[in-house]
Each structure stands twice: as structure tokens, then as C-alpha cells.
Amino acid sequence: MRLILRGLIAVLLLLVGIETHAATPSILLSPKKIVPGGLMVVMVKNTAGPVEGSFNGKHLYFNPAKKAFKAVVGVDLKTHPGTYPLALTVDGRSIARDVVIARKKYPVQKLTLPEDMVVLSPENEARTDREQRTMAAIWPFDSLRVWQGSFIDPLPGKKIGTPFGVRRIINNIPKNPHSGVDISADEGDPEKAPNDGVVIFVDDLFYSGNSVVLDHGQGIYTMFFHLSKIEVKYGQAVRKGDVIALVGSTGRSTGAHLHWGVRMQGAKVDPLALIRLKLE
């Protein structure tokens, strides 16, 4: 009888061990090479959730995926290469990981423009300062999720003029890196919302001309500049694929195109990286 009892206990301990092992969370990071200006996907498997976490001090928004939880986080263009902390709470357990941000070399673009397009008058400098403060105040990172599924190209089939991250030198004066992509298009071409969202900004700005910003929730924002016509209003809800504006050349622009920018949890990231993600 004792032998049978011991055998049963051994089997039970083995089963408990197997269940414990099966329930151990699995954490996967992609892509293999994470770079400044890129995106990182954190996927947690073998858990019923919920999952909480942060990367380099920024909150992560985990959403249910197929038998997993998945979060997308932006790595700002100006992030220095190095090791950064990823902190997760899964099934009540704290898990820490180190994430390596690799170096990425972006191209340099040298331009020569009329002097009044490079050196601002005192009046225009004061205006741009006001506009920058206004823009800095519109990013409520903790907004609720509105986006659904993968993001789409707002101007499908068009060529990229100036890619993301290009370091510009204008009239031998170094400028900030290009924080979006310039998409070549004809005046009046329709621009579509890349995902469901809410219009949180509509204005005519000195540099970017007629401008629209969409809030997709969970810290994801898309920006559309140099528009010839705006088809939406502040506070309006839009669906993926809705026409929100027409291509133009307003503001500081030398020809018709769309400057498309993306901010993710405050990080300036490559819009093309966003539409490459499979988020269905």
C-alpha cells in the first residue's frame, strides 16, 4: 500500500512539474536587430494574462494576440546605441530583460536653398517657437486604443522622395534628422487614414503648412503635412482608408508631396516600419 501511495505521489509531483514548466512565460523580441527610429515587438506566450511592462521607463501596451500578448514600442531616432531595460510583470512575477539597441547609419543629404528659407526673420522665429510648443502639448500618451489590425500606406503605390532619418545639411548648416518620410505625389492626390483614429490637430503651420494629426490610441500618432486641402475636422473619428486630406505644397515646401510622420509613445519612428508590421 505504501509503495502504491508513494507511486501516486511521485506521479502527481511529476505532473505538477510538467504544468509548472508549461506555464513558464516565453518572451520573444523582434526584429532581431532593433535600431534607433525603428519598432520593437514584445510578445509574451504561455500566459493567460494580464501582462504589464515598460521599456526604458515607458509604459508598454499589451494586446491579446493568438495564444499570446503583444506590445509594440517605438525606439526614438535619437536613441544612442546600447543596452536598455525591459521590465515585465507576468502572472504576478517580475521579469527583467536587457534589450540591445544597435547602431544604424542614416544617409546624409546636402541641400542648397534660398537664404530666407533657412534663416528665419525674428517674426517667423517667434511663430515657429509658438507652434512647436503647441505641437508638444498634443501628445496624451495614455489614450485608449482605437486602431485595429495592421496600418496601411496613406498613399499606396507612390515613390519615397526623402526617406526617414536622413541627416540634412542645408546651405552648410546641419539640421535635425528627417523625422518622417516624404512621399512623392501629384497636387490633389487623396491621402488616406492609415488606421482608425481621432483627429486631434488641424492647423496651418509655418514649416509644415496645412497639417493634420491622428490619434490611434496607446501612444500611436500619425502626422500629415503640406496638405492642399483638409477633409476632416478636429475631434472627428475616422476609419482606416478614409480620405483625410489632399496632397499639396503648403508651408516650407519646394513641391507637391506628403510628409508623413509617426510618433509612438513619444518616439519618432519610421512610418514604413509601422506599415510593415503584421498586426492582424
Q: Which descriptors apply to this entry?
A:
four-stranded antiparallel beta sheet, 3 helices, alpha+beta, 22 strands, 280 residues, globular
Explain briefly what this protein structure is.
The protein contains 3 helices and 22 strands. It has 280 residues and is an alpha+beta fold.
Descriptive overview:
By secondary structure, the chain is of the alpha+beta class. Helix content is 15%, strand content 40%. It contains 3 helices and 22 strands. Strands 10, 13, 15, 16, 17, 19, 21 and 22 form an 8-stranded antiparallel β-sheet that branches.
- Which whole number gives the mean pLDDT? 89
| Major sheet size, sense and barrel closure | 8 strands, antiparallel
Q: What distance separates the N and C termini? A: 56 Å
**What is the strand tally?**
22
Give the amount of beta strand, in percent: 35-45%
Radius of gyration: 23 Å
* Low-confidence spans: 7-22
- Shape estimate: globular
The percent of residues in helical segments reads: 10-25%
Q: Helix tally?
A: 3
The sequence of SSEs as H and E is HEEEEEEEEEHEEEEEEEEEEEEEH
